[in-house]
Specification:
The protein is 28% helix and 27% strand. It has 112 residues and is α+β, with helices and mostly antiparallel strands. The chain has one domain: Aspartate Aminotransferase, domain 1 (Alpha-Beta Complex), CATH 3.90.1150.
Length: 112
């Protein structure tokens, strides 16, 4: 599956603007931005994939364009897809990236 390269460029720019050190990794049919070797935010198809604090998950789903991330038939609490209408404006994208960056220090690493 291809991912929206323009959205990926915007995410890169936003991470740079927030002075976040990151690297990129192709996975899950898209592009993930890794911070401290943990999945932070990504682009899957036309959607932003946001890894956020599970405690704010239900409130985040009320935001425009947000929906549950569901790869396996079961929603993954703490992961949200955001459709293009939820990231069209730069301040909306900045909001989601900031949520991801704030949660990253508390996220569990998948490294063994």
């Amino acid at each position: 599956m291809a991912y929206n390269e323009q959205l990926a460029d915007r995410v890169r720019d936003e991470l740079d603007a927030q002075k976040v050190d990151f690297h990129e990794l192709k996975m899950m049919g898209g592009l993930c931005f890794m911070v401290d070797d943990k999945m932070c935010v990504g682009v899957v198809g036309e959607q932003l994939m946001a890894r956020i604090d599970p405690d704010i998950y239900h409130d985040a789903l009320k935001k425009e364009g947000a929906s549950e991330m569901n790869f396996t038939g079961k929603a993954m609490k703490g992961f949200v897809f955001v459709n293009p209408e939820g990231t069209d404006m730069d301040n909306d994208l900045a909001y989601w990236v900031e949520l991801c960056v704030k949660y990253n220090p508390f996220a569990k690493s998948s490294k063994k």
